[in-house]
Amino acid sequence: MKKLNIGMVGYGFMGRTHSNAFAQVNHFFDVPYQPILKTVCARNPARAQAFAEKWGYASVETDWRRLVDSPEIDLIDIASPNDTHAQIAIAAARAGKMVMCEKPLGRNGAEAEAMTKAIEAAGVPNMVWYNYRRVPAVTLARQLIDEGRLGKIYHYRAKFLQDWTIATDLPQGGEGLWRLDVNVAGSGVTGDLLAHCIDTAMWLNGGIDEVSAMTETFVKQRKHNLTGKVEPVGIDDASAFLARFHNGSLATFEATRYARGHKALYTLEINGEHASIAWDLHDLHRLQYFDHRDEGRLRGWRSIHVTDSDQPYMKHWWVPGLQIGYEHTFIHQAADFLTALGETQSASPTFRDALQTDYVTDAVLDSAANKKWVKVRSAERAPARGGADAVANG
Ligand code: SOE
User: Fold this and answer.
1) Which of 277, 262, 264 lies closest to 326 in space, CA to CA?
2) Once rounded to an integer, what is the mean pLDDT over residues 106-122?
3) CA 291, CA 296: separation in Å to the nearest integer?
4) Do domains 2-131 and 134-375 have the same CATH topology?
5) Which amino acid residue places its CA nearest to atom 11 of ligand 1?
6) Beta strand extents in the chain (DSSP E only)
7) Within 10 A of 377 (CB to CB), how many other CB atoms are there?
8) pLDDT of 316-348, one tens digit each?
9) Which of 173, 187, 192, 368 could potentially form a cystine with 181 if both were Cys, beta carbons 3.0 to 4.6 Å apart?
10) Which fold has domain 2-131?
11) The domain 134-375: what is its CATH number?
12) What separation in Å is there between the alpha carbon of 297 and the centre of ligand 1?
């Protein structure tokens, strides 16, 4: 097994999920590479050191430029806030490093485009951490669609509901709350939550042609943690849109941080000519499946407990019936990346796939601002459906 030295930028929520994926992957998957937690990079040296000790990183760096230039590092993983993604990814690609990046790829399509160009010019392996594709039940949904079981697809429906920003005295900016600062995040729930729904949707159902959206910022001003002043809020608190897919199906998407009682309720439903599929992140190991071709007397929704060894990814885990969870989706993504690397290709979603998602979120924001239907720009190569797109270990 070849060793792969990881340089991790960021130690927040995503720094933990990614570090855990690299630390666990070789215990459960036979992949041709062994990720080594080499260096973690963050501005606060004491906290970076504490993170390094907890997770087993060999060293600490406080300037990402030195990390990118270090000959000891093979792969830069960007788990820092959205406004840092572009400059780090572009510099890392130019330095010839492999690059993995937390979603969304850029704060907008223009940034994501520059990143994709730099990565492709350097020809370095790359991937974006849209983890929900690799929930076994979601991967099973993709298999059922690819087998043609649903027939022609008519409807796609997705929601991502949260409630953590309802309090009007919640500040914006700084650690944990940068998602409320438009300069750092790029957008609100459109880039943070709908981006997940869009990535999964295009993976399952192909590209999106056009959208018609509305957004709202319910709390218009919040104190900024870094300036201490009350400042306008530039992010969208809620976003909903209608869409048409290339395959003719119609869609509705909704995301909000103002749905009291919902913490991370990501749901999707797909209705086809023969069958329908439904999935819910709060019950992530189950796939709901209805097939009209079932014998009439027994026809109904099946609740498939996706834990058997012939179901995606599950042979790598425990015994049938025992569930896995959220963190495993990142381990699956690391496993697929390392497997693809052994075959000298990138695993999906690549930077180019994630660029297409940013083009959709750009169109959503444009449509909401200008109150009109907007055609989605194409990232030229069709969003991944086949080839490098396939999940290696699913
Ligand atoms: C926001 O609360 C958030 O943490 C997103 O940033 C993640 O991408 C999502 O998976 C869960 O919610």
Assistant:
1) 264
2) 98
3) 10
4) no
5) 264
6) 2-9, 33-41, 59-61, 75-78, 98-102, 126-129, 153-161, 208-216, 221-223, 230-232, 238-245, 250-256, 265-272, 275-280, 286-291, 302-305, 374-375
7) 15
8) 999 999 999 999 999 999 999 999 998 878 889
9) 173
10) Rossmann fold (3.40.50)
11) 3.30.360.10
12) 42
pLDDT in tens, 33-80: 999 999 999 999 999 999 999 999 999 999 999 999 999 999 999 999
Which residue in this structure is represented by tokens 């929520």?
Answer: 13
Task: Give domain limits for the chain.
Answer: 2-131, 134-375
Q: Which two tokens stand for residue 106?
A: 């850029």
Radius of gyration, alpha carbons of the chain: 21
Does residue 364 contact residue 242 with C-beta atoms inside 8 Å? Answer: no
Nearest CA among 293, 365, 283, 346 for reference residue 104: 365
| CB 192 near ligand 1, within 6 Å | yes
Cα–Cα nearest to 234, from 174, 181, 189, 190: 181
Ligand 1 center to residue 267 CA distance, Å? Answer: 14
